[in-house]
Each structure stands twice: as C-alpha cells, then as structure tokens.
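4.2 Preliminary Data

To establish feasibility before requesting continued support, the project team ran the inverse folding procedure on a target of 331 residues. The structure was first converted into the token representation described in Section 3, and no sequence information of any kind was made available to the design step. The complete token record follows.
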C-alpha cells in the first residue's frame, strides 16, 4: 500500500512498545489494540490511538476522529548521526469524525510491562475500519499476502466522488507518471499506488472493473480525490490501495497489464517514462548507476564521459519490439 522510501516532524513521534510477552500463536501481521502501551517520544501515553499495525514496513496508527498517522524512524546505532523521525497524517476534510472499530480477532494475546504501564491480554485484529466516514462509504485497514492495504468500501447509494483525502506534515505532493500519489518529506516519500477497483455481487463473487481509480491533485493543495469511471451502482464498489496479492499459481496484474519485463544492472536503475511509436513499439527512458546495464555494444560515449565516477549517473534509452516484447536496442 505504502512505500516510505521523508522532514523530521515538528510534533511527537509515536513509538510501538519495544518489549512484549506473548501468549499463544500470533499471525505475521495484525492491528493491535492500544491499551496504554503506546507512548510518544516525550514518554506520554496517546489515548487517541485506538489501534496500530504490527509487523508493518512503516507505522500505521489509527486514531479517533477519522485520523490516520503513517510514521517511519531512521535510527542509528552510533552517536554521530542523528536519528530522524517522520510522520504524515491522513484525514478527510469532507467526512465525519469516526472512531475505528475492529473485526476478526487473531490468535494470541500480548502483555506489556513498561514502567508504570501494565497492559495485559491485549488483543490483535485482522481488520480495523471506520464506518460511514461519508454516507454509505467505509474505510478499512487490513493486510494481504504482500503487505498492508487500505480499502474504501462504497455501498449502493454511496458516491465515490465524496471521497477526499487530506494530508498534513509533508513538504509537497504529486501524482507521478505511473499514477501513484507521492507525498514528499525532504528526500523521501510515502507512495500510494493507484486504487484497484472491483465489485462484489450478492453471493460474494468478485467482479473486476476495467479501470483503476486514479488520483487527482491540484498543485499546492493538500487535498486529493479519485477519478473514477462507470460501474454498477446497484452493487458494492471497492477501491483497494495496496500491493497486488501474490497469486499461488501465478497470474497477471489485475489492472489490464498487457506484458512486462525486467531490465537493469547490478546497481541503482530507474525507468521514468514510457511512450509508443506509430507501430506500437514501446520506448522507455530513465537513468542507471550500473556499469553492466545491458546497452547495445555499439553505443557511443562522448567527452567528458568518465566511467562511473562518484556521484555520476547515466541516462538510458531503450526500444522494445511490440510483437515479441524483446529489446531492440538500448544506449
């Protein structure tokens, strides 16, 4: 769902309790109830937090009044480098203030003994949700096989155009060329993938729709909305933000991807744009830090080219054959 790849925040960071004693067998991920064990960096309890994500690549804290905080800490084991704490808050400017509710308790309980805090038999849950933030629209937090997910569940009668996301704590935001929402903090960002849209019929059958819910963001604004297309208004609509599940027997991306391939070297590479010509042959460009990026043997270097000096990165351009999906040339 979210990739934090961030400026130190001016308000207190939340810290998951470092010590716990577990009764029973816990699953790999869950949302743990806060029974007093969550404190901020000032050592004060944070009763506004009702649940938080365990075993997650970044902190997800579900608070009252429809407020969600995403956090990350860069901690260093020496006294030379400063620790950095990052936090972004998500709220809903046109929605109602709701408290989160839990569903589906996991096996096992946690016990916390942290100084003056004693929290015993603390439950965890597979799913936490905010009900009716907008009329007939709920927000769910859950986990899939590939990590945490966030889903908007729109019942018949609900209007997806009501959904407005407001962010606080970032330096800037933009929608990148892949349609992902990036929320920047200095040289880092939190990334929201496009929402995969699907519907469910009366017996629970998943019905894919032929579009993704892309983001719309006006420059300079902290509010983001979804662009959506036709769907059956008599059935529930779900907009799921998260990494697609790993199919047990393989399979394609659910968002109508025609084909994909891998290209790259042994160091950092990034492709930034893809276009097609009149024959449908794709061209892509980006940059590479790799000495072994697979360029054509006949490529040319021009002065003042120096072979990968410190801080250097090279632009790369490639052409693929649309008929067989093979690389025609790269330079």
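Position-by-position output of the design step:
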């Amino acid at each position: 769902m979210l990739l934090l790849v961030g400026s130190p925040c001016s308000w207190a960071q939340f810290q998951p309790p470092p010590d716990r004693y577990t009764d029973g067998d816990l699953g790999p991920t869950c949302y743990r109830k806060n029974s007093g064990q969550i404190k901020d960096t000032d050592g004060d309890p944070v009763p506004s937090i009702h649940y938080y994500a365990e075993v997650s690549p970044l902190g997800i804290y579900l608070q009252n009044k429809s407020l969600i905080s995403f956090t990350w800490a860069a901690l260093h084991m020496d006294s030379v480098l400063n620790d950095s704490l990052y936090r972004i808050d998500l709220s809903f400017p046109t929605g109602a203030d709701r408290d989160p509710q839990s569903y589906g308790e996991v096996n096992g309980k946690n016990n916390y003994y942290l100084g003056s805090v004693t929290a015993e038999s603390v439950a965890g849950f597979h799913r936490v949700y905010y009900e009716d933030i907008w009329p007939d629209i709920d927000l769910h937090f859950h986990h899939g096989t590939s990590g945490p997910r966030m889903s908007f569940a729109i019942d018949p009668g609900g209007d997806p155009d009501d959904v407005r996301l407001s962010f606080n704590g970032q330096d800037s935001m933009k929608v990148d060329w892949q349609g992902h929402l990036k929320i920047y903090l200095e040289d880092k960002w939190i990334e929201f993938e496009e929402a995969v849209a699907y519907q469910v019929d009366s017996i629970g059958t998943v019905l894919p729709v032929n579009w993704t819910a892309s983001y719309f963001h006006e420059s300079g604004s902290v509010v983001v909305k979804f662009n959506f297309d036709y769907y059956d208004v008599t059935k529930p609509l779900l907009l799921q933000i998260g990494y697609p599940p790993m199919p047990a027997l393989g399979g394609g991306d659910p968002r109508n991807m025609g084909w994909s391939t891998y290209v790259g070297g042994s160091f950092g590479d990034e492709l930034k744009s893809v276009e097609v010509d009149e024959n449908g042959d794709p061209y892509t460009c980006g940059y590479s830090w790799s000495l072994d990026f697979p360029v054509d043997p006949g490529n040319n270097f021009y002065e003042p080219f120096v072979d990968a000096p410190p801080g250097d990165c090279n632009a790369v351009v490639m052409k693929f054959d649309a008929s067989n999906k093979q690389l025609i040339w790269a330079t």
